[in-house]
Design goal:
This protein has 743 residues and is α/β, with parallel strands linked by helices. Among the domains are: 205 residues, Rossmann fold (3-Layer(aba) Sandwich), CATH 3.40.50; 112 residues, Immunoglobulins (Immunoglobulin-like), CATH 2.60.40. It is built from 20 helices and 29 strands. The strands form nine sheets. The protein has a six-stranded mixed sheet, sandwiched between helices. A hairpin with a 5-residue loop joins strand 21 and strand 22. Helix 6 packs parallel to helix 7 and helix 15 runs parallel beside helix 18. The relative contact order is 0.12. The N terminus is likely disordered. Bound molecules: beta-D-glucopyranose. Beta-D-glucopyranose binds next to loops.
């Protein structure tokens, strides 16, 4: 979160709440055993109801807001009990309810640097999405859960699930791509892995927080059907395929109301239609009222108590807010604590398994880097046949870039491009993880001469490339929360650098470190391209394993790479007037009543990502679902069995000469009366095949994925008619097709 303007926060706060609450110990175990609700054979709801009955109004209110955060200790005397994370909620020691210690944890545990603690940086969330691997996603969540507990946290603020409707969104790296089924299934797996470690999981930012520019002011206009079939569907699947305990509502307005006081989003959809039993917490400073937000379904304000402290208490005392409403908020929070096990099995601080973390991070990156181009089987490189390699690119001698903002994991030892030092990284600082491509490549090719050039002088880099057998360029595009990319072009004249190096050496391979798609004016000039994303603590080793063939790439794009920004649904990002933009950047000032709204209208509706390019007949650079391997696959024998959940069977054969894993994708087209884009992803299977091996695969399709959302009936509806089922290795290469009639 932004730190500018934080001192203003104090003005808004009163301390009265604190003196009515007993100081609680930071230990999570205070006296839990003495109470009837300690009986873990009771259901989480039963246990929560028993506690709520015993609570005073002050105790109830104390659970409905944060009590300070890292770097803001002055905000509250109780913040000394905070573990140093983004959020801290006092417990109720009298009743054996421990505090909630929250940390940001998008691709690893944030904020470790301040306390000198180590966290593993996993590849960015968008990379996890590129693996299309539910088991890897589960391991991703489990690792974060273990490291949170080892650092004394019992709640994660991760689970970014916003669709990539706007690829220039500075948080694209924190999200899971442009398709709701892919994003929803993956976030559910991450959360299952995380919550199994007895940590409260949350998914965010609900909803339609698809751009960062003016995020506290923007009013997103979208029709309900499109919203339910796109951004909201990702959350719906995420919630229903797991038991996520918390949902963070977003900063923006949706169809007129702020997301954190939006009855349609919070009550009608989330709590009623989806039957969500957990609690809703506001994004940091995203609460704008007490009565309205509480009635709309917000359960908890973060990081302080502008509205859900004295204001809410007075509203209850004067009868403006029924106590039953407050009880429901409290019940949801307690229920989530019991359900995830944070009361029965509180976190135990311990030593993080650094080596184990490295292994997981590397394994996930190896499954996540997408091979986009490989002319004349340029890759994998044969170390025994190469005498000289040029490694070119900003900081490719020392590190790989990571995504910024509240998701930032601090590298222990600091930023690889800075002198070694202790301390937390700064908001929106480019952080390079100490995983060195140069070293990793030298290790793979010990007999070759491997030289480095930063690329700051393209002519010098081109000269080095010319005198080398192979040129490996590490290009990057950094992004962060709180900003959007000006464009999808590589910054710092890297397009020019790549063009010059490629002109000097026909064996030029580009490794891209990015969170969003990038445009590639040089695409035809280079022989290989690997999208490595923000590659995490062991990124360089994983990339080197792919470049030299120890690992056969298998990942597929979770986002379309467009040819140019002119092809996007919104060729430019709508921004608010400068004054609003400035106010938006002033951090907490935004709390006072919200900012004047500016309008962004998502006329493209459900046509997010590939659905847009398909419907508009726009050719793309690399399509959704695309990715190469060092082997090849063929598809045959499609059979679709209609029924409630149609079953799609087919055979995948590895037709090459090495083992690999193919992500076999299943798409469907709906009957014309449904008025939908040409196709949508309805399932997939990751199939491991040795050379020459065939396997029959069956994908059962959830009927919801074939349905449209009927707004009048407020329900999913399968339109009777002909459905085309298409199967293949990318959204634009679907060799198998069968049409069946569904009723
Ligand atoms: C971000 C959230 C984050 C929170 C706490 C906000 O600015 O939007 O994603 O969890 O800060 O750091």
């Amino acid at each position: 979160m932004p730190v500018r303007g934080l001192s203003l926060l104090n003005r808004f706060f009163t301390l009265t709440m604190f003196f009515s609450i007993a100081l609680c110990p930071s230990s999570a175990q205070s006296g839990g055993d003495a109470h009837a609700w300690s009986n873990s054979s009771l259901s989480p709801d039963e246990r929560a109801s028993m506690v709520v009955k015993e609570m005073t109004l002050d105790e109830k209110i104390s659970l409905l807001h944060g009590t300070g955060m890292a770097g803001l200790s002055a905000m509250s005397p109780l913040a000394i009990h905070s573990n140093g994370g983004a959020g801290f909620v006092v417990g109720v020691p009298r009743l054996g309810i421990p505090p909630i210690q929250m940390s940001d944890a998008a691709y690893g545990v944030r904020g470790s640097g301040e306390n000198g603690r180590y966290s593993t940086a996993l590849p960015a969330d968008v990379a996890a999405a590129a693996s299309w691997d539910l088991d890897a996603a589960r391991e991703y969540g489990a690792l974060i859960g273990r490291e949170l507990r080892a650092q004394g946290y019992n709640m994660s603020l991760g689970g970014g699930t916003n669709l990539t409707r706007e690829p220039r969104n500075g948080r694209t790296f924190e999200y899971l791509g442009e398709d709701p089924v892919l994003a929803g299934k993956l976030v559910a797996s991450v959360m299952k892995g995380l919550q199994a470690e007895h940590v409260i999981g949350d998914i965010k930012h609900y909803a339609l927080n698809d751009q960062e520019s003016g995020r506290n002011a923007v009013n997103v206009n979208i029709d309900k059907r499109a919203a339910r079939e796109s951004d909201l569907l990702a959350f719906e699947i995420g919630l229903q395929d797991s038991d996520i305990a918390a949902v963070m509502c977003s900063y923006n307005r949706v169809n007129g109301d702020y997301a954190c006081e939006n009855k349609y989003l919070l009550t009608d959809v989330l709590k009623k239609d989806w039957n969500f039993k957990g609690f809703v917490l506001s994004d940091w400073g995203g609460t704008h009222s007490a009565e309205k937000a509480s009635a709309a379904g917000l359960d908890h304000e973060e990081p302080g108590w502008i509205f859900f402290g004295d204001q809410l208490k007075s509203a209850v005392e004067s009868g403006k807010v029924p106590i039953a409403e407050v009880d429901d908020h409290v019940h949801r929070i307690l229920r989530s604590m019991f359900a995830t096990g944070v009361i029965d099995d509180p976190p135990q601080k311990g030593v993080v398994d650094v080596v184990g973390g490295f292994e997981v991070a590397q394994k996930i990156e190896e499954q996540s880097a997408v091979l986009l181009k490989n002319d004349h089987a340029q890759l994998p490189l044969d170390a025994s046949a190469i005498h000289s390699i040029a490694v070119i690119g900003p900081h490719a001698d020392v590190g790989m870039i990571s995504g910024g903002g509240s998701a930032q994991v601090d590298p222990s030892g600091g930023n690889a491009i800075m002198p070694p030092g202790k301390g937390r990284t700064h908001w929106q600082e480019k952080i390079w993880f100490p995983t060195s491509p140069l070293k990793a490549i030298r290790a793979k090719a010990p007999t070759a001469t491997v030289k480095f050039d930063s690329g700051s002088d393209p002519a010098a880099a081109a000269a080095l490339a010319k005198s080398s057998d192979v040129a490996l360029i590490f290009a990057y595009q950094w992004e962060s929360e709180g900003m959007d990319l000006d464009s999808l072009s590589l910054p710092e004249h890297q397009d020019d650098l790549i063009a010059k190096v490629a002109a000097a050496n026909p064996h030029t391979i580009v490794v891209i470190e990015s969170g969003s798609p990038v445009t590639m004016p040089w695409v035809d000039q280079v022989s290989g391209i690997l999208e490595a994303w923000y590659a995490g603590s062991r990124g360089a080793e994983a990339v080197a394993n792919i470049l030299f063939g120890d690992v056969n790439p298998s990942a597929k794009l979770p986002n379309t790479f467009p040819k140019s920004e002119a092809d996007l649904p919104h060729p430019t990002i709508v921004k608010p007037p400068k004054a609003t933009m400035d106010a938006d950047h002033q951090g907490w000032r935004r709390i006072a009543g919200g900012l004047p709204a500016f309008q962004v209208t998502y006329n493209e509706g459900v046509k997010v990502g590939y659905k847009w390019y398909d419907a508009e007949n726009k050719p793309v650079l690399f399509p959704f679902g695309y990715g190469l391997s060092y082997t090849t696959y063929s598809y045959s024998s499609l059979k679709v069995t209609p029924g409630k959940s149609p079953s799609v069977s087919f055979t995948v054969t590895n037709t090459g000469n090495r083992a690999g894993a193919e992500i076999a994708e299943v798409y469907a087209s709906l009957p014309p009366t449904a008025s939908e884009p040409p196709k949508r992803l309805v399932g997939w299977s990751k199939v491991k095949l040795s050379a020459g091996e065939s396997q029959e695969v069956t994908v059962d399709v959830d009927p919801k994925y074939l349905s449209i959302f009927n707004v009048e009936q407020n329900a999913w509806q399968l339109i009777p008619g002909d459905y085309g089922f298409m199967v293949g290795g990318s959204s634009q290469k679907l060799p198998l097709k069968e049409t069946v009639n569904l009723k």
